[in-house]
Amino acid sequence: MLRCSVLLIALMVSSLAKAQESPSKFGEISKKNLEMTIYPKDSSAGAVVLMDWGYVNFDYNFEVQLQRHIRIKILNSTKFDLADIKIPHYRKDRVEKLEAATYNLVNCEIVADELDKDDIFVDNYNEYTKHTSFALKNVREGSIIEYTYRVNYGSFSQIPPWYFQREIPTMHSEYYVELPEAFEYKKVMRGYIPLADAVTSKKNMRYQGSTIMLTTQHYVAKDVPAFISEPHLTTKEDYISKIYFELYAINIPGSAYNRYMPNSYGDLAYNLAKDEDFGKRLEKGRFLRDETEKITAGLSDDLEKTKAIYHFVQEEFEVDVDFEETNYKKIFDERRGYSMDLNFILIMMLKEAGIETEPVVISTRQHGLVHPLYPSFRNFNYVLALATIGEESYLLDASDKFLDFNNIGSKCLNGQGLVVSETNPRWINLRPTMSNMKMTTANCTLSEDGTMHADIKIDRQGYIAMNFKRDRDDEDDEYLKDFKETHTGWEIEKHEISGLESREESLVEKYSFTSEEHAESLGDIIYINPMVIGRYEENPFKLEERIYPVNYGAPVKEVISYSIDIPEGYLVDELPQPVAVALPDNAGKFLYSVSAVGNKIMVNSQFLINKVEFSTEEYPYLRAFYSQIVAKQAEQVVLKKKT
Amino acid sequence: MKRLIYIWLMLAPLAGALAHDGKGRDDPKYPVSDIAPELLEDAHLVIRKSEELFTIKSIGETVYRQHYVYTILNDKADPLRQVSVYFDNETSKVEEFEAWVYDAKGEEVDKMKKSEIKEQSYVQGGNLFDGIRLMYSNLTKPDYPYTIEVITEKTYYGTLNMPQFAPQWSENISVESSSYTILAPSDLKPRYRENNFDGEFTEKIEADIVKMEWRVSNLQTVETEPLSWGIREVVPIVEFAPNKFKYGGYEGDMSTWKSFGEYFWQLNEGRDKISAKTAQEIDRITQGLSNREKIKVVYEYMQNRTRYVSIQLGIGGLQPFEALMVDEVGYGDCKALTNYTYSLLKSVGIKSYYSLIEAGMYPDPVSPDFTVDPFNHVILCVPTESDTVWLECTSQKNPFNYLGTFTSDRSTLLITENGGKLVRTPRYKLSDNLRSRNVQVKFDESGNALIFESTAYKGLHYSTSYLNQVVDQGDEIKKKWARKYTDLANFDLESINIKDVKTELPQAVVKMKMTSQKYASRTGKRFYFQPNLMSHVEDSFKPVEDRKSPFSIKYPLAFVDTIVYDFPSSFQVEYLQEPVSIETEFGNYSSHVQFVQGRLTYFRRLELSYGEYSPDKYDDFIEFIEKVKDADKSKVVFTTKT
Description:
The structure holds two protein chains of two kinds. Chain A is an alpha+beta fold.
């Protein structure tokens, strides 16, 4: 892929600077660490990384190589599996100088068990990958394991990423990247752990009469806590502390300046627009002209035309990730392709219809956030279409069967998207266009013996409706069956969901049930839990503090309105007090009231989350907000027999 | 153990034989409109045709050919579009692998090309290394429903692996037609056992070749019934087993359990040497002890020096590493660690038996009259003067002589110098598996509860609560355990203490101090709470119409709770639950409250007895469980003047 004259550079230098060395020699084990039984900074840790050291440099053939030296203290048997090591690598990569050992204290002496070369397995995993694996000897609670190896990666286009954080705590993590200055890489940092050290230095190296400048980047993190996942995260990769590198340019004096990363996102968008496989391809939609005319026949309004084409692609085409095809005529004929291909067809057809349409590249929530500074193609994994008619713009995704016109799916709600254009590259916000909305109504009748009969109607809208339709496509039977099996105490009389098959129809779930769980009749008194369904029974946020922000993706709105007919001859004796709780800056609101009107009890509840992301500073408010809801919704209504 | 994987694979989508249909290319094949409507009911997959042909060529070579046509109705069955064939360079070879895809009308949509077949290693789960490999391809996906036709043929270098005939291996599968054919020289004719088989069977001999054929057709979908032994109770299965066989270069005879055991004895022979240093060490630490004590000391020595690592090499994963190797590296799989323990005991003159077993909560029953190989695990059996000790050798934390739900109460094959011997592992009694809980709760004026809990977990309660994993861990881990396993909706844990009572039947006492905000929920002047603080039956058993298979309670369990509540003096009882007492053949339940001198005491006892019950009793069992769940949720109500 990179057309750089490796040979040329190789002629200039055949050996580079003196290598960096691991901070500790192989086998230099401290007795103190062997004696450790609990890691004081995290007593729940089953193991702790004492040291993880990596060093990347170029070898004589200008191939990237990584040297690695790892030492892990095993605190208890739950982490014995860390001593079964599997190093995945490409088939052409060479794993060299592999050494490994286990250290135990035996009668106060350090005893080392070294790995035999015969005990290393190399498994040809598949056509691209190999696994070099081995199990360390005599690992016990308290052992320290250590291994070191070198992998030669061949190509210089990829510098291996470095994770400072793992599922177990790390005491010391250190990464050196030493490269000739001519190779410019951009580094990208992620995560929430401050680095103890991050230094870039340069040094000269004389070699065969010429001077080579080396750039050394050095990163150290100390006392890194274990990575623990929490509810409402986008993807683990956005939060775990790591660093990775992207080749920016190769700049060899006296030779052409080769640029591998655009200057800016503007340039990236421009480049993509000029790219044969991207922007230029979108201009080759002539073969779609007849079909486009057919679809838009009789329509004069541009918006009508856009809708017709959008729905045509959305309804006729299937996403098929096994269908690897670059010929768009074939994709069109077969009516299937990757989701990007479907949106390419959409863009080409809209252009044929004379609608100004641009592609927008984005990164899905699963794929992580787009780095704000370094314009790399790798940041993006998804394409949308942006159609402009007069003053109005419409963001479209024809690869999702459940979307309405001018909506994007919840997986796409991730910051900003880049509009690919030669003349006007720009960012657009990927804002949620809807909320996660749920409206529940119930008409209930309570008998004297405490049996409750309820007719429920749940109306879901926005992203949850869409996701519900997508997940239950053709399978509402399963859902109904599961529902029945998880509500064994209820006698469910009828249960139906309408609107599942169709994008336009609203999704309505209806059922009736009779249950003895909702109220208890004790002598002259009946106790009722007025939250017939949909009660928050526990706080989703269990941790007292949180390291990462909370991300909801889209606003949430849940509205409840129940009415309960009380049995003849009873009076309301006690009712929960109404309450209104709000988060600062109107970021969320909970309103709850239970009132008695004649022989009816009316329950009204509103739950709103207006903000998509909450910072760790706001977390305690959010947690307290939920705990008030949990407590309030648990309160009961008391009925007393008239005397 | 590698065999486990094989057994699983053989239960998985199997079918086959003969050739791709000889029809012309353009004729529609297997149109969906041909399927009888009753076969579509509840189906995700319709097996249009499945032909399996197992040919025994000689004792050292067999050929297994499958030819199947599946109509895939929805995305539940869509994973079958990834067609695959497993092999292992040591014991098998793929001879043929072809596949076609048809749309609903039966038009051919795609034919798998050689270039689309990928190969990859099948090292999975806990295995570090294993020789099994996988050839696979993802076929084109047309709209549902669509049909795939697949032919695979494999040669096995040996006669030990004989795939079962299991035409309906899961729920939601219906079958138009499925057959299994065996061709074998008459001296190598395998034995077979039919379960629920109600189809056609034919047997012929021609020129000294036996041909046996089983065939079923028009099978509607079936449902697995809860608390049964799984799908096998309700679907036809034919199992096969050779008499004389060869595997991994070793010959054996499977006609009886005795002779099958001889094969394993042969594999293990001479692999029991340990180093002189270890022998001396063992000798030293067992000096002056009784035999039973020696076994315990050796077991703990092995546990402290080894860990479980699964590396499958040699004789298709049937032969253990030599004890000398385990001695040196300190790891091994179940076979290696059991053989190692066997060797250590042998060095101090204690005889023990390597025992093949099927591990898991619900093992398949083993018949004394039909020798097959259902085993996936190995444990060690050590007879002593007074009793028999059983050792699970793959865990550092497993208590001595404790089998748990993993291997208790089932058949195991002891490998002795005189061949195999089928015996049973012990079954735990109800009184062995007691969880007794004592709690003191103090309420304040707002209904907040301060809770002191002390619970003894004995027998199966000890291992099913994973206490063995946490007894000797730090506080944070214990707290994590408590947060996960405490059946209380809303609580803060202040302290925890877990004490291992080092009895032979494992037992631990957990003490916790907790607070629960607003455990008694207040409306106006009333407080409500469930006196059953933290012991609820959570299982639900779905009703089954016209149940066919018997059900069983395999592991008896007993639970006893006593909870004492203290209140501020301003609290007055408004309502107390009625006592409940239920007696059934499945078990008993009672709960009641007493209010004496301002103090409320709640008593609860639940016993689930061991037993197998006929299908018609299932409704009574559900009723019992539902009554228990109702009684568990009863409330008491207090009023307060303030």
